Amino acid sequence: MAVVTRSQARANARHRTRTHAASLKSDQHKRVVRAKTWKAPVRTVKHDPAQLLGPDLLGAIFSHLEAETLRNCVEVSRQWHAVAKQDYLWRPLCEDLWNGKVFVPQRQQASSASFKQRYLASTTAATKASLTAEELCAFTWNFRFKRTAGAYCMSYDPFWTKTGPMMQRHFHADRSVTGSPRTHPFWMPEYECTWRFTKYREGKAGHYVKVNYWPALGISRTPGWGWRMENCWVVYEADLQLGGPLANGLPAPAPAAVSATAVASAVGSALEGGAASAAVAGTSA
Description:
Organism: [Myrmecia] bisecta
InterPro entries: F-box-like_dom_sf, F-box_dom
Distance between the termini: 144 Å
Pfam families: F-box-like (PF12937)
Domain F-box: 56-94
Structural class: alpha+beta
Oligomer: single chain
Helix content: 40-55%
CATH class of the domain at 133-238: Mainly Beta
Protein name: F-box domain-containing protein
Shape: elongated
């Protein structure tokens, strides 16, 4: 029988410990590898709900959805798209969206545009913090001073004194600005006011309106989709009313009138052309 010394016993014990630790580490590594490579079984939907329910029942379900969810349904499949884009689903959503809004050009949008397109166009337009020249000139603007303008200005402002209707301003296509009532001491009829668009205010890029040399007016939207312009001293707000003449947007531009001079010129050109043709025909004969 072999005699195992104490040092050999210690060496054997250390060897067994290392072997056991290596085995545990190997098993742990295998479990990690298996966990990383394991994939959940893919469950495929054998039947599209649109095929099982039919378009009518699916549309009835879609009628309870919010606009954003209904918009996502359009992207699911062709069958869902065909149902989710229907006007009968988007019309009530448009009516809810437009309720209480003072300026909604999409109400009178061409009939070729679906209510889904009108809804999306409305949500985009409602956040547009800029004005076209046509919009600026079409609106009547209620005007008032801010407290920062000082007590003197506030003492003459009907908004603060509660002595009458607010002052109003009108922007015109010739770049002039007029006001009403004309007799108000702050209007100063002999003083010329002009407006222009500018892209910067105090070094900040954006879309602004500048009247004379005064600080540029920043443009924003009101909760009712109206328009507001303001600087450090004054506030302009478009005088738009629910159901008012501009509630459905700006009126369509009138067709350009043809001047009498243009008509006479066209007739003269036609007569000259006819005479020249006759002369050529006579020469050929």
